[in-house]
Structure to design on (210 residues):
């Protein structure tokens, strides 16, 4: 065997290093995903994907502000049925923006008009969109998608 | 501040707003190159319009 092709690090040690690197990368990907969920766009910003970070932040923010100003329903954990619980999960998808929506809905929800109903959908869509963006950031951090 | 006055939409304006925001987000998340993004944003926006208006017309006979 040619000496130049001989690995400088013994094989078992090298595979251990690769495993450690993979675990670190996996932990980093989870941290990116959680950051992206908590603050819309942060998962992409941590990976220097500035355009995506700004667009996710603005899109989720616009939907939350529009949904709240149209007096959509910001669901709480005290739901009466499965739809309320699903709505709560979707709304929680916006991360920290959920608390912004709760703070903004001073007058409460009014779904007796079409605007209020649209607002409810905007808020749920903001949450699902943010979860999708966090998943995208997670996959990008794992090197599977860019 | 009265947040309820920030956004006031008609049905069609709400529909356009939703389609535009989601299309831009999909375009940036789904494509990497600027040219591809613009094409994808326009394609998504067009599909939102066609499908939304199509469903509205399909439901029209049952609205009365």
């Amino acid at each position: 065997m040619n000496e130049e092709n001989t690995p400088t690090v013994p094989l078992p040690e090298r595979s251990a290093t690769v495993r450690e690197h993979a675990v670190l990368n996996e932990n980093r990907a989870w941290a990116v995903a959680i950051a992206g969920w908590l603050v819309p766009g942060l998962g992409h910003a941590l990976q220097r994907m500035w355009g995506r970070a700004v667009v996710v932040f603005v899109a989720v923010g616009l939907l939350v502000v529009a949904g709240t100003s149209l007096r959509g329903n910001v669901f709480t954990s005290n739901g009466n049925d499965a739809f309320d619980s699903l709505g709560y999960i979707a709304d929680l998808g916006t991360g920290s923006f959920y608390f912004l929506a709760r703070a903004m809905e001073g007058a409460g929800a009014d779904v007796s008009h079409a605007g209020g109903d649209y607002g409810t959908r905007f808020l749920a869509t903001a949450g699902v969109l943010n979860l999708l963006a966090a998943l995208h950031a997670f996959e990008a951090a794992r090197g599977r998608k860019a | 501040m009265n947040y309820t006055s920030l956004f006031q939409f008609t049905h069609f304006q709400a529909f356009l707003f939703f389609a535009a925001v989601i299309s831009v987000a999909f375009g940036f998340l789904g494509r990497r190159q600027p040219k591809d993004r613009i094409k994808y944003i326009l394609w998504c926006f067009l599909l939102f319009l066609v499908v939304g208006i199509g469903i509205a017309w399909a439901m029209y006979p049952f609205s009365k």
Chain A is about 70% helix and 0% strand.
